[in-house]
Amino acid sequence: MPDPLPRVVTGDHVGQVDNTVVPRFAGPPTFAQLPRLDEVDRTDVAVVGIPFDAGVSYRPGARFGPAAIRAASKLLRPFNPAVDLSPFAVQQVADAGDMAVNPFSLDEAVTGIEHAARDLRERASRLLVLGGDHTVALPLLRALGSEEAVAVVHFDAHLDTWDSYFGAAYTHGTPFRRASEEGLLDTSACVHVGTRGPLYGARDLVDDRELGFAVVPATEVDALGAGGVAERIRARVGDRPVYVSIDIDVLDPAFAPGTGTPEAGGMTSRELLAVLRQLAGLRLVGADIVEVAPAYDHAEITGIAASHVAYELVSAMAPREAS
Predict the structure, then answer these.
(1) Which one of 142, 183, 228, 302 is CB 3.0 to 4.6 Å from 224, fit for a cystine?
(2) How far apart are alpha carbons 279 and 227 in whole angstroms?
(3) Closest Cα to residue 248, out of 228, 265, 266?
(4) Residue 2 has pLDDT above 50, yes or no
(5) Residues 93-145 pLDDT 10s
(6) Dist. CA 120–CA 103, nearest whole Å
(7) Torsions phi, psi of 298, nearest 5?
(8) Is 0.70 surpassed by the pTM of this model?
(9) What is the pLDDT of residues 26-70, one digit of tens each?
């Protein structure tokens, strides 16, 4: 069915609803009021939700994250002045809806997400995933990294390279250990950013290094600044294919209270967005934003931060003219 809404169209790229005609609060519930996947012929970036949180170890509720991020994304406008770019005008971005995931079986959920991601990749060059808890990163990496190992740039308060919780191999604290064990990661090029807080023991850091990760902890962000953090990332990943995984708890609880395992001493939203803007030009194959749990949010602070994170990721994925 043709889209009856007035939209911003640039060349063959169908963009957002024209909010000079339709108020933003009245538009469709897609990400940034972009067209649905079935409303466009082709897609460069598919935004897809995974409303799943059966892998959490503390507070549940991230299954409602995709809806909260989409609701907050109505605030987003077409032009990104921080990078002098209209990200929806130079690439086709569409909302692919939500994956239907088994909420009672971790094994079936992980398998189902992988299959759904592989199917979606047949219609889109890149995926931008709205979680959901961090368990979803493993099946996404299986779908995206099975042909060529990827460098993971992981923004998180936590390492997420633990072995198991209560005997469960698939949880939100284990995806990158499983991915490393399965050969999905380029173990010379992965990096955590923003980690902080107590660990189970010093061995956690040793294991993490052996699995292929360098660390830029939150305690170094002040000294490095956003530019220094981005330089560390770029030096680590080089020209390898890159998957960016962002747990919203990388932000301090002052900027993202709506999450399941908050840790004091995190990045500000301004710092995170500034780092993401400097990832343009990397070989981004996909990204996720996870652990938004709106039940613990206040005044939609976390959802708004996550929607802007998504906007900067879409901007970083956009093609740039050669300088």
Answers:
(1) 228
(2) 10
(3) 266
(4) no
(5) 999 999 999 999 999 999 999 999 999 999 999 999 999 999 999 999 999 97
(6) 21
(7) -130, 125
(8) yes
(9) 989 999 999 999 999 999 999 999 999 999 999 999 999 999 999
The residues that bridge with 95 in the sheet, in sequence order, are: 36, 47
The long-range contacts involving 174-177, CB below 8 angstroms and separated by at least 24 positions, are 174/135, 174/138, 175/134, 175/135, 175/136, 175/137, 175/138, 175/141, 176/137, 176/138, 176/152, 176/211, 176/213, 177/207, 177/211
For 194-231, how does the pLDDT look when each residue is reduced to its tens digit (9 = 90+)? Answer: 999 999 999 999 999 999 999 999 999 999 999 999 99
Q: Report the distance separating Cα 58 and Cα 39, nearest Å.
A: 39
What radius of gyration do the chain's Cα atoms show?
18
| DSSP class of 147 | S
The 3-class secondary structure across 225-248, one letter per residue, is: HHHHHHHHHHHHHCCCEEEEEEEH
Would you list the DSSP string of 175-189? HHHHHHHTT-B-TTS
Residue among 292, 290, 254 at smallest CA distance from 271:
254
Superfamily per CATH, domain 7-317: Ureohydrolase domain (3.40.800.10)
Residue 71: which of 248, 302, 271 has the closest Cα? 302
Mean pLDDT for the stretch of residues 142-152:
90
- Tell me the pLDDT band of 1, cut-offs 50, 70 and 90: very low
Q: Across the beta sheet with 213-216, what order do the strands follow?
A: 93-98, 43-50, 124-131, 283-290, 241-247, 151-155, 190-193, 213-216
Residue that is written with structure tokens 């063959």 in the block: 12
Return the domain boundaries, the chain.
7-317
- β-partners of residue 80 are 85
Task: Supply the pLDDT for residue 322.
Answer: 58
C-alpha distances out from residue 293 to 59, 165, 203, 300, Å: 8, 21, 30, 10
